[in-house]
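Running this now, will post back.
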Amino acid sequence: MTLATVAYRISTDVSFAALLQQNAEEALQQAGITLEKTEKKALETLLALPGHISRAGNVMLTAEPWVI
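Update: finished.
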């Protein structure tokens, strides 16, 4: 799978996004998502930025009313 799948799940599944921030390996495993080494590294870098995932999801959902 690709990071696009992870990004889509973050923007559409609040519980996935929350679990991803708490325990990325568990969230990916439960979702059946397998990332390549470089994708995992990119995700780890993103997760190291405090609060950015939850804020990104909130902005996306409020900025795009058709998503709701």
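The helical segments are 3-12, 14-22, 24-31, 37-47, 52-63. More later if anyone needs it.
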